[in-house]
Sequence to fold (309 residues):
Amino acid sequence: MKIGILGTGFGAYHAQIYSKLKNIDSIIIWGRDEVKLRNIKNDINIETTTDIHDILDDPDISLIDICLPSSLHKEYAIEALKNGKHVFCETPVALTLEDAILMEQASKKYNKNIFVDMFIKFDGPYDTLYKFVKENKYGNLKALHLKRKTPPLWGSLGLDEITTKLMLHEFDFVTWLLGPSDDIISTSTQKDKDKAHVETIMNYENSFVEIQCSSMMPEYHPFTTSYEAVFENGTLEYLENGYSNRTEKSLKLFTDECQQEIELSEVDCYECAIKHVLECIEKDVPSKLNIDEAIISLETALKVKDLIS
Fold:
C-alpha cells in the first residue's frame, strides 16, 4: 500500500510509524517547509514534495493521512475522497459540526472511508476500562471520573480551544463507552485567554461521568491523565504522570477481597490506531475510528464549549 501524508508536524511522527510497517510499499509526505522535508528524508528515507497534487492526484496512493490544522481538514479530506483515496484524519476532525457532516457526506458519496485518530481507544488503561464495562465483571459502572491536566506545552488552550483540542480525548472515550449524553452541565474558569480549567458532568440513566480538564498547571507540573471508575463491586483507578525525563503509570483494581496492580504493557496507541486503519482498509471491515463516532464526540465538545462561553 502507498501512503500520502499531508503535513510535516505530527505527520513526521506518522511517517516514522508507517516506515516500520511491512505492508507499506512507499510513503510520500507533503509540506511547505523544505528544511523540514529534508530532515524527514534524511531520517527515514521517504519521498517528499512541496506540490500537494503529487499526493492528491497519484492513482497509486490508497490512503491520505491528514496532519494539517483542523481548519483545513474538510477541504483536503473531500479532495482526497474525490480522488478515490481513503482518509486518516487527526483530531478534531473539524472545527465545526457543519464541516464534519460535509466530510461524512462526501465519504458516503465517494464510497471511501474517513478514519479519525481517536487514539485513546487503543490506550491500554482505557481499553482495559472499556472491557471491564462491557464484560460487567464487577457489576454496572456507577460513576466515572476522568482528568487531563497539562502545563503550558501545547500552545493556546483557553476556553475557546480546550474542549476541542484537549478535552476531546475524554469525549472520544466516554461517547464510545456510553454513548452521547442528553444531560450535560459544565463550569469553568481561566487564568488568561490561553489557559483554562473546565469541569463537566455527563449524566446517564444509571450513572454519571465527571471530566476535569485543565491547561492551568504550572511549568513543573507533569502532564497528567487519570480516571477512577466506580463499579457496583469494585473500583478501577488509573494514573499517569508524564515528566520531561520519565513517565510514571499505575493501574489498580480494588474490591472487597483484594487490591490488585494491573500490569501495563508499553504500547504506542498511535501506532495501534494506524495499524487498525490499514487492517480495516485491507479487509474492508468496519472501524471504531469512523467519522460517525468522531462527529458524536465533536458535537459533545462543542456543546460544552457553548456551556462555558
